Amino acid sequence: MGGASSIYNDIDLAWLMRLRTVVARLGEMDCGCWWNSNGQLGRQGAAVLRRGFPRTHYFAQARSVHIIAAARCVEIFDPPNSATLWRLTDEIEERLETNWESWLDDAATWRPFFERVGVLKSADVVAALKDFDLVTPEEIEAHGKIKKSSDGRSIQIPETFEGRRRTVALLAMSFAVGRPGNLVVPYAKVGT
């Protein structure tokens, strides 16, 4: 297989969903204070949404906080011709949306993951992603070499985004540059 589609083969979409969800939880007001949701991915959010979505409330929680996080990042820093954790390529986003329905059909399998996410209380992004087995030691090492930008609002991943897992992992881990109440938006230039 060749062409543009072949470059997206190493991003597992279930991994991407988990990665985004952990970062989304860590940025909530009761953790990192980066976006305006408070415990929505926690037990409180589950208790509220379970009434209206008994089988799929975890996914409703996740979608909501993903949207809130994406909007907040755009408010802080919206780089042109770039990818962020919340806005990758159209092809990846479309594939993710297509898989969403199958995950809803298999919601029970996801329950242990969402329950673990719900009890997160720290804003230690790298430690949480490592604990959830969402990043490799090599990705953690590469993250440690990224230089902070001077603007205080963003951090550019030195790799061009070409649909590879490693760059997405670096985007996620780079939220660690921010501090509680101080969101720093990671981004990577999109390759041609």
Which structural class fits the helix and strand makeup? mainly alpha
Number of strands: 3
Low-confidence stretches: 1-8
Helix fraction, binned, reads: 40-55%
Order of helices and strands: HHHEHHHHEHE
Biggest sheet: strand arrangement? 1-3-2
Give the strand content.
5-15%
The major β-sheet equals: 3 strands, mixed
The oligomeric state is single chain
Shape summary: globular
Quote the distance from N terminus to C terminus. 18 Å
Number of helices: 8
- Alpha-carbon Rg, integer: 16 Å
Average predicted confidence as pLDDT: 88
Descriptive overview:
- The chain is mainly alpha-helical.
- The protein is built from 8 helices and 3 strands.
- It has helices at 13-26, 43-50, 57-76, 90-105, 107-118, 125-131, 137-144, 165-173; strands at residues 82-83, 154-156, 185-189.
- A 3-stranded mixed β-sheet has the order 1-3-2, covered by helices on one side.
- Helix 1 packs across helix 4 and helix 2 (43-50) crosses helix 3.
- The protein starts with 12 loop residues before the first helix and ends with a strand.
- The model is unreliable at 1-8 (pLDDT under 50).
Quickly describe the structure.
The protein is 49% helix and 5% strand. With 192 residues, the chain is mainly alpha-helical.
